[in-house]
Amino acid sequence: MQGHYGTYAVAGGDVAISRIFPVEEAEQLSSHLIEGSATGLFLVEEHLYVLSNLNWGQSPSPESEAAISWRNIQGAALTVLDVSDPSEPALVRQTYFTGGMREARIVDGDLHIVTYEDIYIGDSAARQAEALRAINEATTDDYQTLRMDNRKVNDVWDVDTGPACSCENTFASSEEGGTYVTTVSTLDLTDPLGEISAAAVVGRADTIYASDRSLYVGYSVSPGTAFTGFNAIQNTVLHKFTIGDAKAEYAATAYVEGAMTDQFGIKESHQTEFIDFV
User: Fold this and answer.
1) CB burial readout 40-49, b (16+ within 10 A) else e
2) Cα dihedral 193, 194, 200, 204 in deg (nearest 10)
3) Residue 68 C-alpha from the chain's centroid
4) Judging by beta carbons within 10 Å of its beta carbon (0-12, 13-18, 19+), is residue 184 exposed, middle or buried?
5) How high is the pLDDT of residue 264?
6) Pick from 70-74, 114-118, 186-190: least confident
7) pLDDT, tens digit, for every residue of 142-179?
8) Closest CA to 144 of 105, 197, 199
9) Helix/strand/coil (H/E/C) assignment for every residue in the chain
10) How far, in whole angstroms, is CA 9 from its chain's centroid?
11) ω before 22 within 30° of 0 (cis)?
12) Distance (Å, rounded) from C-alpha 266 to C-alpha 253?
């Protein structure tokens, strides 16, 4: 990625900032180690936003050194660097989510991050009775994506840990939705240390599409699965979120016969969705 000063590149767990012009002065100015494997980055003004997936079972290791009880699954991270001085990037935010990083989109100055995870309650139990006990003792928080937010304010780390969104902002179809939960987390990029809002829906996240006012999360199901039942062939599940004002809000779910081609197989125009299926 090219910025006003040079290039910002990510490989594995390193972010490298380099000067590329004039050519005779090309050099690497700095680098910063991030957790996990980077999946993407955005440069907005003087801040670099790096998205990454943690290794399976890897717990967050924030610079704040705050401790957390983390789920033994894959996690995702948002790392924010102040690159106003490219030779000395400063870490200002580390935000962690349970589940894998699926996609991210910037729309009208807001960063929308899509993560999803398969939530099992009692999966490590040795006996059925233990599994049932774990289910009975579970709270609504146990069925939510967890978020650990570390923000550096006035050189002091502020740490907040808990569900990424409330139960009231988590939606599910009237049909059986399985154990996957997809969460859309939104940050207003005019304030890199601002609050992150979130909304969630029961289901996977295979295909992501975003317009200037909506974000769609789609995935394919096989006929006769628990989600669709045996009475109707429903091959694609499409969840719609309206986006704007630094938030995403669940709007609707559609069940359509056929499989979506890819993220370019949907178009939104004048409140009408056009979808390509095969």
Assistant:
1) ebbbeeebbb
2) -30
3) 19
4) buried
5) 62
6) 70-74
7) 778 899 999 999 999 999 999 998 888 888 776 556 77
8) 199
9) CECCCCEEEEECCEEEEEECCCHHHCEEEEEEECCCEEEEEEEECCEEEEEEECCCCCCCCCCCCCCCCCCCCCEEEEEEEECCCCCCCEEEEEEEEECEEEEEEEECCEEEEEEEEECCCCCCCCCHHHHHHHHHHCCHHHHCCEEEEEEEECCEEEEEEEECCCHHHEECCCCCCCCEEEEEEEEECCCCCCCEEEEEEECCCCEEEECCCEEEEEEECCCCCCCCCCCCCCCEEEEEEEEECCEEEEEEEEEECCCECCCCCEEEECCEEEECEC
10) 21
11) yes
12) 15
Tokens representing 212?
């200037």
- CA-nearest of 22, 6, 137 to 83 is 6
Q: Residue 101, Cβ neighbours under 10 Å: how many?
A: 24
> Residue type for 223, please?
P
On whether the CB atoms of residues 218 and 236 are closer than 8 A, the answer is yes
Q: What is the pTM of this model?
A: 0.85
Classify residue 127 by burial, with Cβ atoms within 10 Å: 0-12, 13-18, 19+.
Answer: exposed
Q: Alpha-carbon distance 90 to 77, whole Å?
A: 17
Side chain identity, residue 138: A
What pLDDT digit, counting tens, does each position of 58-112 carry? 889 999 999 888 887 789 999 999 999 999 999 999 999 999 999 999 999 999 9
Using 50, 70 and 90 to split pLDDT, how confident is the model at 130?
Answer: confident
